[in-house]
Amino acid sequence: ALWAPAAPANYTVPSHPSERRVDRVVIHVAQQLFTPTAGIFRNPSKQVSAHYVVRSGDGHVAQCVREKDIAWHAGNWEWNT
Question: Which of 7, 59, 68, 72 is the most exposed place for a label (fewest CB within 10 A)?
């Protein structure tokens, strides 16, 4: 995956140990194209991010948030932190 980092203001570095296991995957359909979607995650005023963006045309992947960090896109805040 291409590293396309989200703005640090758009995700949380967790206080729990980094070896916590990933046990769920959330899939969204973006209403923007690939490049503008990654750009939204780089904009700190948007307060949103996802771990990965996948381009539908060819499957190209960009990672925007490290898996050990908490992206701001779905879920219960208290449970995720």
Answer: 59
* Domain residue limits, the chain: 2-12+28-76
Buried residues in 30-60 as b, exposed as e (16+ CB within 10 A) = eeeebeebbebbeeeeeebbbbebbeeeeee
**How many residues are listed for the chain in this entry?**
81
Alpha helices in the chain (DSSP H): 34-42, 77-80
> Is the whole model's pTM more than 0.90, yes or no?
no
Would you say residue 77 has pLDDT above 90? no
